[in-house]
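User: I'm preparing a small set of examples for a lab meeting where we compare how different chains pack in three dimensions. I only have the primary sequence for this one, and I'd like the structure in token form so I can line it up with the others. Please keep the answer compact; I'll paste it straight into my notes.
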Amino acid sequence: MTIREQLEELEHKTLYQYASFSDQSAGRDVEEPQCDIRTVYQRDRDRILHCKSFRRLKHKTQVFLSPGDDHYRTRLTHTLEVSQIARTIAKSLRLNEDLTEAIALGHDLGHTPFGHAGERSLSACANKPFRHNEQSVRIVEKLENKGAGLNLTKEVRDGILNHKSICMPYTLEGQAVRLSDKIAYVNHDIDDAIRGNILKEDDLPANVTAVLGHNTRERLNTLIHDVISASAGKKQVLMSDEIADALGKLRTYMFQYLYTNPIAKSEEEKADKMIGRLFEYFMEDVSRLTNECIEMIYMGEDKETVVCDYIAGMTDNYAIETFKNIYIPKSWKV
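Assistant: Understood. Below is the structure token output for the 334-residue chain.
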């Protein structure tokens, strides 16, 4: 018996009956020989962890565009915090922790430079919705590995696609990541806003903090414990009505006072115009794109989609440097 088979056997002995068992996965689009030491979900986690799109997350905006302080969250640190929270929930509910981690690590691969501002910009440029969750799936299915994709299991791709509030993954592991994403970003965005002197702890609604807690640590503790207790023995990962209502009110407050705050978002108009100019530049002459992008267009891919792919894959820094190289005159030298 291989190590992988031993691990699969152990899952059946230890995991919750409604957990996702590795040897019962719906599989990959392209069948592959099994690994002798890793389960399918462990392999998916490793493929995401080692892909280029994951590495680029370290230089992509979470909320604050190009912050000068190294302690503000980036898209990468957000992803790691989501993974930690989701794995804690999964372990406590006896779900498949490897599947949970794979979904968490891959859920934001499709984010553009400059956060949701970049997402809105590309939607306007292409005249069709650009959704980061759909782009994340496109990355793992088609864009990574020189167009071959990562060939992930259906469960991981479903969790990545459906991590947004309006969606619902079909696995409990995906549902754990979906809630963990909200728990993570609401709390770490508050923490960053306090660091940036945009909010103070006392500014938060008293009726919410009375339920969830009066600092980040208390709120995380309350929310994670609630998900675990509310979901135990059920076929769904969820929150209690009281805690879900309080978190919803806190998110509403954050959208009103942080996510649209003119101080926090003061540079977004510049980022929007910059992405618009980059889109026009590459649409004007697609030979300016990389060889991989040009080949995709020759193979029949929609030109606007490929240009969006290229710009969405940029880090904040790379987008800025590309714009400078195109539009900012350089000093003349002999």
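A couple of notes for your slides: The chain has 16 helices and no strands. Residues 3-257 form a domain with the Hypothetical protein af1432 fold (CATH 1.10.3210.10).

User: Perfect, thanks.
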